[in-house]
Specification:
Number of domains: 1
Order of helices and strands: HHHHEEH
Strand order of the largest sheet: 1-2
CATH architecture: Up-down Bundle
Structural class: mainly alpha
Number of strands: 2
Number of helices: 5
Largest sheet: 2 strands, antiparallel
Strand content: under 5%
Distance between the termini: 35 Å
CATH class: Mainly Alpha
Helix content: 55-70%
Radius of gyration: 19 Å
Length: about 190
């Protein structure tokens, strides 16, 4: 007997719901753009372009934080479809563990990376102004020593997220093309 109470609105088919698909791809595209811009702007000399990119990076980080919260709420209230039986049979136990570890770590980093960025910006004395219109309160007190302490955590967690995204994409492509599991169709909008 299963005593587990299912979340509201379970997804009845083997594919993800349209909302889950939209949140997945929107967050994925936003994260790739943020990581690319963050990497690009890191070595730029002080200039109007660098200041513009840093401001964009900060408010986009807050948007990603908000989007991550929406995605987490959706995930907690809508049961994802189980892995198809053929994938479950073909995957060794270590791949099952890696699948869940990667998934949960990525969800954690969706929040940790922007929060470290917000904290770093606050500690550096540069407020976060979303869309150039909505100033956010400082997340931590201003202090250069604190900013220097937080900066490597923001960069390190962002790099960890980038590695996990690459691993996630590589695993999906492996299942799609090497194992011929047609896994990618689960994350496309259904007709």
């Amino acid at each position: 007997m299963n005593n587990e109470i299912p979340p509201a609105n379970p997804t009845p088919s083997n594919g993800y719901s349209l909302m889950a698909v939209l949140l997945h791809w929107l967050l994925g595209a936003a994260l790739v753009a943020m990581l690319a811009v963050g990497y690009y702007m890191e070595d730029l000399p002080v200039s109007p372009e660098r200041l513009k990119l840093f401001n964009w990076h900060k408010w986009a980080g807050i948007c990603i934080l908000t989007l991550s919260l929406l995605r987490l709420v959706w995930r907690l209230t809508h049961r994802p479809p189980p892995l198809p039986a053929d994938i479950q049979q073909d995957m060794p136990a270590w791949q099952h563990h890696a699948h869940y570890l990667t998934q949960y770590t990525m969800y954690g980093l969706f929040f940790i990376v922007p929060l470290f960025g917000w904290a770093y910006s606050s500690a550096s004395g540069f407020p976060v102004v979303v869309f150039g219109l909505v100033p956010l309160p400082d997340f931590v007190p201003v202090g250069q020593d604190l900013a220097e302490l937080i900066k490597p955590w923001h960069e390190g967690t962002a790099m960890a997220l980038a590695v996990l995204i690459l691993l996630h994409v590589a695993a999906a492509l492996k299942h799609q093309w090497w194992d011929k599991h047609a896994l990618l169709q689960r994350m496309w909008p259904r007709r």
